[in-house]
Amino acid sequence: MISALLLPPNKSLIPLVYVNDVKTAVEFAKRWESAGNTHIEVLLRTPQALAATESIASKTSLVVAAGTITSPNILRDARDAGAHLGITPGIESEILTEAESLDFAIIPGVLTPSEIMTARSRGFSVLKLFPASRLGGTAYLKDLAAVFPEIEFIPSGGLTLENHQEYLELGNVRAVGGRWMMSSL
Predict the structure, then answer these.
(1) Domain-by-domain residue ranges, the chain?
(2) CATH class of 12-183
(3) What is the 3-state composition of the chain as percent helix, strand, coil, each rounded to the nearest 5?
(4) Whole-number pLDDT of residue 2
(5) CA–CA separation, 23 vs 56, rounded Å?
(6) Which one of 43, 72, 81, 140 is separated from 26 by 20 to 30 angstroms, measured CA to CA?
(7) What are the distances in angstroms from CA 70 to CA 8, 42, 45, 116, 132?
(8) Residues with catalytic function
(9) Rounded to an integer, what distance in angstroms lies between the CA atom of residue 88 and that of residue 106?
């Protein structure tokens, strides 16, 4: 279960930071924070990502989510680097079990109703939906709301400056993630 303090505020934006350069990532995070935002997701897809996670966590008061957690080892590395929570692109029991054993907050990713039911059975009510646009976008989220009214989603994947507001207007969308935000500040 994730603490409410680590959840993004309702209808918020979460930039997905792809790190090529730690200094640039930290500068963006500071600007993001100074604009009044509370959350950032660092994608653990480059060799510099863990260093950026550590720097952002130590130099800002942002809630730093480590994204693209795909194994228990990556989860431990993210936690050790100072991430406040982890976000997975899919749901995998070993990762969930490791997060639980470490008392490390996590938001699992889902694609299907079966995965949503698995996450719900493990106590999760806020889930990452990735890749949202390829799954049917807002139409898919509307369909899911009818079956899972108690679940909130953080969609990412294909969200843009032009379409993100359509997602935020849905009642079952807690926040949206996207890489486009890095160019907005």
Answers:
(1) 12-183
(2) alpha beta
(3) 40, 20, 40
(4) 73
(5) 10
(6) 72
(7) 21, 14, 10, 18, 18
(8) 41, 128
(9) 8
Number of helices and strands in the chain (H, E): 8, 9
Structure confidence by residue, pLDDT tens digits, 105-115: 999 999 999 99
Q: If phi over 0 gives left and psi between -120 and 50 gives alpha, with beta otherwise, what is residue 103?
A: left
Structure token pair of residue 1: 């279960």
What is the maximal distance between C-alpha atoms in the chain? 44
Q: How far, in Å, CA of 96 to CA of 27, rounded? A: 32
Residue type, 111: L
Q: Which amino acid is at 107?
A: I
CA pair distance 153, 130, nearest whole angstrom: 10
Strand, coil or helix: 66: strand
pLDDT tens for 106-139 read: 999 999 999 999 999 999 999 999 999 999 999 9
